Amino acid sequence: MDSLDTFVTQHLGAVTLALSVVAVVLLVAVVLLVRRTSRLDRRLRGLTRGEDGQSLESILDAHLSKVHAVGQQVDDLAARSAVLEAVQRRAVQRVGLVRFNPFEDTGGNQSFALALLDANGDGLIVSSLHARTLTRVYGKAVAGGKSEAALSDEESEALRQALASGSGSSRSA
After folding, report:
1. CB 166 within 8 A of CB 122
2. Contact at 8 Å (CB) between 56 and 47?
3. How far, in Å, CA of 123 to CA of 116, rounded?
4. Is 9 helix (H, G, I), strand (E, B) or coil?
């Protein structure tokens, strides 16, 4: 034990200096940690400070509720969109028009054949034959791009135009 006392006594200055250096290093480390902790604390307070000073948990709960509400709205819009797409397929979207002059005693192409079809090729053909003294209007049903009634050349051309007008713009659901 005496040898340890002798050693410490002989090197007391160096030991004191070493311990002082360690104390200063530890003090600097504590100061740096306090600064870092205060910065983190400020950031955390900034995160948790809502419009009403709410906690981070209540803010996240509110955002989560909004996300669920938006998800429900998206689902509702998808369902409505599906219904609209189904209805849209039945709307007139293919049109063919042929104007012609069936009689020599009338001037101009005042007669016409008009084909109005949906995406499935269902619809009707309306024909109007105009003469000097009268105008006659005829209607013929079309199903799947075909008419059960006999078609005139002009009606057939209007049907062909209508079917061709939908080939590039029709969308598959």
Report:
1. no
2. yes
3. 6
4. helix
